[in-house]
Design brief:
Chain lengths: 413, 306
């Protein structure tokens, strides 16, 4: 890593920094405005029932998934995985629409308008996912992908966890608009201007150190790729299913993520940073299965602790539980940012990134969010957390069992 | 199955057998959930974490009661103390407490006819078990203690360098050549391991496993220090441009490393953190090499060079 500093290869560092900035801003938008803000918008400002919100969010997830898969497939067919400028221009268009939608949502006053607004947002996000993720093979060399993913995760979670204890739609909308309006001219300039650095970035995907993802070098099997999607689906599903319920439990939010005390929020934000940097170091040095085992193991332990805590009817939260939660979340987010490009080449990345991010990330997150919102009125908190814990344990032991079945590395996807 | 794996499995299964003893040194009735009617004679303590329990008028409990959550209704006889930290405690008119009643939290509902033979302590007046105070020894004593610890660990390093040379070498190499990865893994093992052990201890039933886990974690930390000590020994050799035997190098290196670690930890504000970081590197190296049983080869070397 440090040899690259010495080589003063400015376009490489510029490209990697650009990727980190774009992805962390995008992920911050997704984490705050889309995932938490829209739920708050629907329930508090539009007065929708939890069931209606659950249904609308599931629609958003499925539409985003469908749009991303179609657009990823379309980009791959047209060879846009190798067209750096085209992808940057697409990203610019996506940001323009995101800015407009974020601005206009203040005028959404009915459920019909909300669903229509969500449908347009789903389309925009569906284009954004393959366009932005496929920039990885242009901007980040394989050796630096773990670290780039770590910094992206650290920045977005630090900002999300540390910035404000008040998780309200209005706050998220203001911050998101500020980010979008700041990024818009910058991406616009990069997308339409010519500069030697940008010309250098446009051909980087032809270099082997950018083109051949980490898992492509020894050959990758169809089983490995789909196994990875299933594992990531499990991680996202477990996380959102548990967290969206905790989000509705004042005891656990006000003593941690939404604490009025800055020190507590800072502690969680710093834990996210440490977790992300740890995962960055481990991503390049460990096989991926141990990382998944760590993630599911930590989730299982955390939910077990929450389950105990609920059972004893304690009147105050314990910081170790959100700390472990933050650790697991940071580790898997790093995996998500690095791994899809490492399973791809410039020719295949738009569709594979779309498959990975939408099938495992978006679908799992929003399906589990919908389920979690629906369960709030149906099952008690303790039972809910126990179900999440069971899922974590299931994935943990399933991975352990699969560890005994070697997968032959052959290129077949 | 490999002999080592078979032995470990045997040890694990033997541990399960220890749970078969009918009457242990200590007995406890644990209630975490549901509704329970306690009607018999109970020789041990009662710990209520949740749910609802009633100690009926014919029932007696020889030990103490600890109510942390849930609800307990007492109609019978409790020989020991009753400590209320959370939940609801109701003393019916027929209730008889032989010991003290300690009220630290939760809701207490007494009845006029209930008898409390001991004292009632509330809030901060709850007496805690007496623990012998441990004063920090004077400076010469502390220095001597540190030196003795360092010599002891140095001798352990010498012993391991003679009996388990490849193992300690693997740990040392992992810590020196893959410091960042070792530190990261060590941090995870430390944080998650301690959380797991504390959670297991909370179940009471798994306290023996917790103790075993603490022992393993402690051994891993010590082996990590020895691995780092061996690296230090190599650095000393290089600095002195000399060549010592592996045992001497391990002894001297570990001695210097432990003294250096103590010095590092004594730096105000950041000393403790630095000590944790160094310990995490050693712990991670031990974890990556499976207690020195295999060499650590990073995945990226295989992936990037294939």
């Amino acid at each position: 890593m440090f040899e690259r500093f010495k080589s003063r290869n400015a376009p490489v560092w510029f490209g990697t920094s650009l990727f980190i900035a774009m992805m962390s801003a995008g992920y911050y938008y997704n984490l705050t405005f889309v995932q938490i803000g829209l739920e708050d918008f629907g329930t508090r400002l539009l007065g929708l029932s939890t069931a209606a919100i659950a249904r609308d969010m599931a629609v958003l997830a499925l539409l985003t998934c469908g749009a991303a898969l179609f657009f990823g497939w379309w980009m791959t067919g047209r060879g846009w995985g190798r067209k750096f400028r085209r992808k940057l221009q697409l990203t610019f268009v996506v940001i323009v629409f995101q800015t407009l939608l974020t601005f206009l949502c203040a005028w959404v006053k009915s459920e019909t308008a909300f669903v229509l607004w969500l449908a347009v947002l789903a389309l925009v996000l569906g284009i954004g996912v393959p366009a932005m993720f496929s920039l990885t093979t242009d901007l980040v060399p394989v050796r630096l992908r773990g670290w780039a993913a770590a910094l992206t995760t650290a920045l977005s979670y630090f900002a999300a966890a540390g910035s404000s204890g008040e998780w309200r739609f209005e706050t998220f909308r203001q911050i998101s608009l500020f980010l979008l309006l700041t990024g818009l001219p910058a991406i616009g300039l990069l997308a339409f201007l010519r500069h030697p650095w940008l010309d250098a970035l446009a051909v980087q995907h032809q270099r082997p150190e950018f083109a051949n993802g980490r898992f492509m070098r020894g050959g990758v099997s169809r089983q490995q790729f789909w196994g990875f999607i299933v594992a990531m689906f499990g991680v996202y599903f477990v996380d959102s299913l548990g967290f969206m319920r905790l989000l509705k439990t004042p005891l656990y939010m006000e003593s941690a993520w939404q604490s009025p005390e800055f020190n507590i929020r800072l502690f969680i934000a710093v834990t996210h940073v440490i977790g992300a940097l740890t995962a960055g170091a481990l991503y390049t040095s460990l096989r991926v299965r141990p990382l998944f085992l760590w993630i599911f193991g930590i989730f299982a332990l955390t939910h077990l602790q929450y389950s105990f805590h609920i059972r004893v009817e304690a009147e105050s939260g314990v910081l170790i539980m959100p700390m472990l939660y933050a650790l697991a979340v940071s580790i898997y987010t790093v995996l998500n940012f690095a791994v899809w490009a490492d399973f791809s080449t410039p020719d295949t990345i738009p569709f594979r990134a779309a498959l990975g991010v939408t099938l495992s990330g978006w679908t799992a997150t929003f399906l589990s969010t919908s389920l979690s919102v629906a369960w709030i009125e149906q099952i008690p908190l303790e039972r809910h957390i126990q179900v999440v814990n069971s899922f974590s344990m299931f994935f943990f032991f399933a991975l352990l069992i699969f560890a005994f079945f070697p997968v032959r590395p052959t290129e077949s996807t | 199955m490999k002999p080592l794996r078979a032995r470990l499995l045997l040890v694990f299964l033997s541990l399960l057998l220890t749970a078969c003893g009918a009457n242990g040194l200590y007995q406890v009735t644990l209630i975490t959930d549901g509704s329970h009617q306690l009607t018999g004679h109970y020789p041990g303590d009662l710990l209520v974490l949740g749910g609802q329990a009633t100690l009926s008028s014919q029932a007696s409990l020889q030990g103490s009661v600890h109510l942390i959550g849930g609800q307990l209704v007492v109609q019978g006889h409790i020989v020991g103390d009753v400590t209320l930290l959370g939940g609801h405690l109701t003393l019916e008119p027929s209730a008889r407490l032989g010991g003290n009643l300690n009220l630290g939290g939760g809701a207490y509902h007494p009845s006029p006819g209930s008898v409390i033979a001991g004292r009632i302590h509330t809030g901060a007046n709850i007496p805690f078990p007496h623990l012998p105070e441990r004063d920090s020894p004077p400076l010469p004593g502390a220095l001597l203690q540190t030196l003795l610890n360092a010599i002891l660990l140095g001798l352990t390093a010498l012993f391991l360098a003679r009996t388990f040379p490849n193992g300690v070498k693997r740990v040392s190499e992992a810590a020196a050549q893959h410091t960042l990865v070792s530190g990261s893994v060590g941090l995870l093992v430390g944080v998650v391991g301690i959380s797991l052990l504390v959670t297991m201890a909370y179940t009471i039933l798994l306290i023996p496993v917790t103790l075993l886990g603490l022992l393993v974690l402690g051994l891993a930390v010590v082996l990590g220090w020895i691995g780092l000590g061996i690296t230090t020994g190599r650095l000393i050799e290089r600095a002195l441009k000399g060549s010592f035997s592996a045992e001497k190098s391990a002894f001297a290196g570990t001695l210097v490393f432990i003294l250096g670690l103590k010095l590092l930890a004594s730096i105000p504000v950041i000393g403790g953190l630095l000590g944790v970081v160094v310990t995490a590197i050693g712990l991670g190296a031990v974890s990556l090499t499976r207690f020195g049983l295999q060499s650590f080869i990073p995945a990226n070397e295989a992936d990037f060079h294939s």
